[in-house]
Amino acid sequence: GGAKGNGPTLASAAGSLLETWPTSASSLSSDGYKDLYVYQLDHPTRVLEWTSGKTICVAGFGPDRNEILELHLPPKLFADENKGLCAERDFKVVHGGFSDGPVHRLRHIQGTRCVVTNNGRSSSLQVWDVGDDESDVFRRTSSIEGAAPLAGQAAGERGSQVAAGPSPQPCVLHGALLGHVQLSQLASGDTCYTLETDSSEPLSALQFVSPWVFLACCRNGNLFAVDTRSPSLPPPTPVPPPPEASTDPVHWGMHATAGADVAGCRVARLSSGAEVVVSDLRNPGGPARRALLEVPADGSAGDHLRVSWAPALEDCLAVSGFDGGVQVFSVSTWGPEAREQRALFQHRGHSVLPSERSAPVRTTAHAWHPDRPRTLLSAATDGSVHVWDWVHPGAAQD
Amino acid sequence: MPEIKVTPLGAGQDVGRSCILVSIGGKNIMLDCGMHMGFNDDRRFPDFSYITQNGRLTEFLDCVIISHFHLDHCGALPYMSEMVGYDGPIYMTHPTKAICPILLEDFRKITVDKKGETNFFTSQMIKDCMKKVVPLNLHQTVQVDEELEIKAYYAGHVLGAAMVQIKVGSESVVYTGDYNMTPDRHLGAAWIDKCRPDLLISESTYATTIRDSKRCRERDFLKKVHETVERGGKVLIPVFALGRAQELCILLETFWERMNLKAPIYFSTGMTEKANHYYKLFITWTNQKIRKTFVQRNMFEFKHIKPFDRSYADNPGPMVVFATPGMLHAGQSLQIFKKWAGNEKNMVIMPGYCVQGTIGHKILNGQRKLELEGRSTLEVKLQVEYMSFSAHADAKGIMQLIRMAEPRNMLLVHGEAVKMEFLKGKIEQEFSNIVLTINLKHTFLTYYLEKGTLPDPKKPRTMHGTLIMKENSLRLVSPEQAMKELGLSEHHLRFTCRVQLQDPHSDADTLHRIYMHLKSVLKGYTTQHLPDSMSVMVESIVVKVSSSTEDPNTKVLLLSWSYQDEDLGSFLSTLLKKGLPSVLC
C-alpha cells in the first residue's frame, strides 16, 4: 500500500525495499510493472518534454551552465511484438546543447524542430533549434523578450510560464503574471496577441486547448478560459474554498485534457495542500469533482508540483512533487465533496533506490507517453529518470 | 616538436573491430588485433597492407598489445602473427593469455568446420601465436626495449581486461580497450592513476548513450526466467564458459535463495570446472566482494546450481540450464535447444552477440523454421529473448576516466564526428586544456603537446582545517598543528621534470634568460633569480640549469615543484619546452 510518510516508518520501509524494489510481492510477475527502465543523468532535470513520439528533452537547472539533451527512448520499449528480440535498453543522446543559465521550463513547438526555454528568473525566452541529421548540437537561434517585471514582483515569480501556441503559425504563449500574457511569433519574436488586463496575479500554468482558446491558471487557483478573438478578460473560475479552514497558504497548478473540442475539455487543478478540483469547461462554475489526495502534503513541495491527465486513458490523472513518487489516480469515482482518495498506482522508485544524495529525493517532473496508455516518464532531484509502464492493479500482467 | 601518430587499421565500416597503430618516439605499436564479426570475407581482418605491402610485419612493429579476450579485439591475432607474419612480442594479461586461445579455437571451429571456410588460421597457428605472448601483471612496468615501456591497468569489463599505458621517453599514450566504470557482481570498476598521458585513446561506441541500470536489466532477466519456470517451462541460457555466465549464475543463485524457489538450475558439464579453475587462478582480477567471501566460501560453488547431465533434458517440469557454447552453433546447448524448441512454454535467453551463420544469429533475427543437418527442419515455438549484459563505459564513464587520467589530448575511435559534436563540446568545456578529436576510420592524425593556461595567482584558496574531537571538546586547528599534536610527520610530494633546450649561451646566461622570460610571463607571481645555486624559483617551483655533457649548447633544465603548485608547475614545464624567445627585454 501507499506509505503515508511519517519519517521513521518510511525510512525503514525504504530500507527493506532497497534490495528488493520493485519486487516485494511473491512473484516478479506481479511487481506492478510491465516495463521498467532506470537511468541516471549527470544532473537533475525539472523538464520532461516530448519532441516526438520517441524523443524527449531534459535540461539541468543548476545556477550556471547546464546541458539540454534530446534523448531517444530505448528501442525495446517500442518493440512490442518483437520485444524479445530487441536487447536495446539504453537512452541515446541524439542532440545536446548548453544553456548559460538554469532551465526551468522547456516547451516543444509542434510542427517545428524548435524548443523554447525559460530560466525561471526572468521573462525572456530562448529559442533553440534542436538539430537534425547533420549535427547533434542544439543551436540558440533567438530570444523573445517578455514584459518587464513589476516592482515588488517576488524573485520566485519572475519566471514565465510557457505554452506552445496553436498551429499552424509557430508561436509561443508566455508570461509570468496574468497581465503580462502575450502570444509571440517564434521566428520574428513579434507579438500577435496580448491579454488586456492590469492584473498582477502570478501565473502557474498556461495551456492552449483549441486554436482560439487558452487557459490561464493563477497561483491562487483562479482559472481563466480566454478566447483570443475577443480581447477582454473573462471572469475567473475560482477554486472552491478548502474543506478545512487552513492557515497555510496554498498555491495551485493546472492541466487540461487535450483535444480539439473545447466543450469536452476537463481541467484539473492541484493545490500544494494536495487538493484536486476537476472542472468541465462546458460548465466551469458548476459542480466539480473534488478530492483530497492521500500523499504527504507538508507544504514542502514548492515549485515541483505537477499534475497531468493521461492522454490515452479515461479519467486518469498523475501527480508528482509531493515526495519521491508519482501517484496515479482515477477520477471516475470522485464526487463533488472533497473526500480522501487513495492512489490507483504509486511509483516509488526514485525514493527507494540507493541515491548518492543524502537529502530526501523529490520528483521534479513526470510525463505521460502521448499514445501508449500506461507509459510514463518521471524525473527526480537526484538526477534519476525512470521510464515505466504500470499495470492496473487487479489486471493480469503480461 | 614531438609527434604521436595514430592510425586505426581497417577496411569496411567502423564498429566491429579494433586494431590501432600508434607511432610514438620512433616506436610502432599495434593495439589490439580484432576480427570484424559481421563479414565473411577478408574484410573481417584489419588491412595490414598499410604497414607493409608484402612481407612480414616483424621489423615494422616493436610490439603488439591485446586488451582482452573478446574476438573483436583478438580475433585476427593468429592470422596476423602466423599468416601475415610477426615474430615479435605480443603482450596481454595472464587471464587474457589463458582464455584467448579457447575462444579463438571455438571460433575457428565454427568458421571452418561449420561454415567450411578455407582462408582461416588453424589450431596449430593459434598455438604458435600464443607462444609469442609475454604476460603482463597489473601496474607493473615492462621494458619492451631500452626506450619503450608499457604498463597495464585494470579495466573491468571482462576477466583480465586491461587499459595500457605506453611510454617512450617523456611521451606517453594510454589505450583503454573496452572498460567499465561501474563494478558488477564479479568484476570491479576500471581504475587508472593521474598519469597524464599526452594522448588518451578511447572507444566511443557507447559514448552517446545513457545506460539503463543494471537493476532493470537483471529484473527483466529474472522476470523472464521466473515466468517461464512458474508455468512449468524450461529455460535454456547458452553461454561461453567464461564471461557473463558467472554474473548470471550469481544473480540466479541470489534470487532463488531470496524467493525460496525449488526448480532446478544446472550448468553444463565441463563449464563449472573450467570457470572455477580460471576464476580461482585469477581471483585477484575479480572484485572485492568475491575475494572477501572466497575465504569462507567459493563464490562459484553454488547451493542451487548443479552440474547437468544429458539425461536431465528429458525430465518433466521446469528447469533452467546454462549450456555451452554460446551461439547455439554446436555441442550441448544446441542439443538441448533441439529438444526444447518445439514447446511454446519454454524459453531460450541469448545473453550476447551471435556470429552470422549460427543458429543463435538466425533465431535472433526472428527465424522460426530452421534447417538442420540431414535436411530436417526444426520449428521454433519456444520464446526467444535477447538480452545484453555487456559492461561498457557510456558518456559519464568517459568523463570519469578523463578526470582520473588527465590526458593532454584525447582521441575517440569508432565514432561518427557529426554525431559527437556535443560530447566533444562537453569534454572540452569541462577539461579546458584538452584537445579532442573524433576519429573517422582511415584518418591520419598527429598530435602535439597542448599549451594549457596560466593559473591565476589571485585564485581564492579554500581554507584547510582539521577538527580535533577530544573528550567532548571540539577544536579547529590548522593541519600542521593537528599533525604536530598527533605526532605525525607531514609528507611532501614533489614533481620533477627535465626539459632540454638548445641555447648557445653559458649556463649563467641561460639562467638569466630563463629568469627574464618567466618574470615577463608570470605577472602576479614573484620570480627569484638565484645564480649561486644555478636556479630560478617561483612559489615552490625550482628551475635548475646545467649543460648536457655531450654538447654544451644543449641545456638541461631540471624543474621540480610541490604538489600544492601542480597547476603552475605543469604550466611552466609546457612553457619551457617551447624554448626561450630570442629577444628578451
Automatic annotation (TrEMBL), chain A:
Family matches, as SUPFAM superfamilies: WD40 repeat-like
GO cellular component terms, semicolon-separated: cytosol; spindle pole
The keyword Lipoprotein belongs to this UniProt entry's keyword annotation: no
Keyword hit for Secreted: no
WD repeat segments: 367-389
BP-aspect Gene Ontology terms: cytoplasmic microtubule organization
Entry-linked PROSITE patterns: WD_REPEATS_2
Keywords, ordered alphabetically: WD repeat
Stated name of the protein: WD repeat domain 73
UniProtKB/TrEMBL annotation, chain B:
CDD domains per the UniProt record, alphabetical: INTS11-like_MBL-fold
Gene3D superfamilies assigned: 3.40.50.10890, Ribonuclease Z/Hydroxyacylglutathione hydrolase-like
Keyword Hydrolase: yes
Metallo-beta-lactamase domain boundaries: 16-233
Residues of the Beta-Casp domain: 245-363
GO cellular component, as recorded: cytoplasm; nucleus
Signal peptide per UniProt: none
Single GO molecular function: RNA endonuclease activity
Keywords, ordered alphabetically: Cytoplasm, Hydrolase, Metal-binding, Nucleus, Zinc
Localization of this protein: Cytoplasm; Nucleus
Main location as per UniProt: cytoplasm
InterPro entries: Beta_Casp, INTS11-like_MBL-fold, IntS11_C, MBL, Metallo-B-lactamas, RibonucZ/Hydroxyglut_hydro, RMMBL
Needed co-factor(s): Zn(2+)
A Pfam short name: Lactamase_B_6
GO biological process, one term: snRNA processing
Homology family: Belongs to the metallo-beta-lactamase superfamily. RNA-metabolizing metallo-beta-lactamase-like family. INTS11 subfamily.
Record's protein name: Integrator complex subunit 11
Organism of this sequence: Gadus morhua
Origin organism lineage: Eukaryota, Metazoa, Chordata, Craniata, Vertebrata
